[in-house]
Amino acid sequence: MSTTANHTVNPTAELKSTTGATDARGERIHGNVLIWDLPTRIFHGLLAGGFIAATVIALWFGEHSKLFPYHAIIGLVIALMIGLRVVWGLVGTRYARFSSFIFGPRAVLEYMKGVLARTGKLHIGHNPGSAYAIFVMLALVLALVATGILIGQGSESAEDLHEILAYIMIGMVIVHILGVVIHTVRRRENIIASMIHGQKNAKPGDAIRSSHPVVALGFLAIAGAFAFGLIRDFDPTTQTTRLPILGVTLQLSEAEHKDGHRNDPGDAKHKVKDEDD
Ligand code: HEM
Ligand code: HEM
Predict the structure, then answer these.
(1) Host H or E run for residue 217
(2) Best CA proximity match to 5, nearest among 70, 101, 140, 103
(3) Does residue 43's CB lie within 6 angstroms of at least one atom of ligand 1?
(4) What is the CATH number of domain 8-232?
(5) Ligand 1: distance of its center to the CA of 149 in Å?
(6) Ligand 2 contacts CB of residue 82 (under 6 A)
(7) Where does CATH 1.20.950.20 sit in the chain?
(8) What is the tens place of the pLDDT at every residue in 88-118?
(9) Is 75 in the pocket of ligand 2 (CB under 6 A)?
């Protein structure tokens, strides 16, 4: 049995694993075993759902909709979830740990060659291709949240950057989903279902011992309390809220003044012009 987290199995053997096939080292494969723990799966669900919701609110409903403050609130909760995922990436289970899916360029090249030739090895944890996409997506979401916060401080360059990053991220997500679907169909390995129930076809020795439901509940409780605090302290008149514990006030969208003006940097110009008229 291998002791490394990202070792591979012979794809043909994996496809036939329920019929008692053997892997590349001649070891018997026994069937479905637990690979993704609950914190990782819940993180993925909240990240994917949250990203889609924030994007739909911004692009579909638009800035002037009553839902728009939730765009930023969802973004802030996702940022907190990424923070928790980073901690779990350091201390979590075997395949959730970052050290199990940090690959060098050579591994990525080998993986890509294997994808093109359709002979590549199946990875039990994240493969080198998806690993890079994962790190880029996490960084992009954090950059989106940072630029989103800066928009509230009146930065116009942050506004442009926020929009560009959002479109790059949408492109990355489309590639991610396409990659997952292509892998599922071509390799007949249902990794979509694996991210839901946590199991993959592998040897019992590859399994993680626990899905860590208590840690998952802890993650959910922290994210829920954070979201509750942001929503409770949201002031619709100023379009602001306060970050729980830190107490920092954040502008979530451009605020409406009583006189109907929007609270943007152009406001000062509007006022001077109004007085001149
Ligand atoms: C709804 C469609 C989606 C499906 C079916 C899907 C499926 C998957 C699957 C199967 C994996 C595991 C890949 C592997 O085996 O290496 C994964 C991982 C991941 N996906 Fe998605 N995904 C979806 C949407 C998204 C979205 C919208 C995002 C980003 C906002 C995202 C970000 C990620 C990340 C960061 C990981 C790594 C999870 C971790 O290790 O914590 N996914 N996804
Ligand atoms: C998952 C994180 C986020 C995503 C995917 C996202 C995505 C987007 C998208 C697609 C737009 C529309 C861009 C356009 O076409 O004009 C937008 C606009 C905006 N976002 Fe976000 N955003 C996120 C987080 C945040 C956060 C955390 C904040 C504030 C704290 C924020 C504040 C804003 C504001 C104020 C606008 C309107 C900008 C304008 O006037 O054009 N966003 N966002």
Answers:
(1) helix 213-232
(2) 101
(3) yes
(4) 1.20.950.20
(5) 25
(6) no
(7) 8-232
(8) 999 999 999 999 999 999 999 999 888 888 7
(9) yes
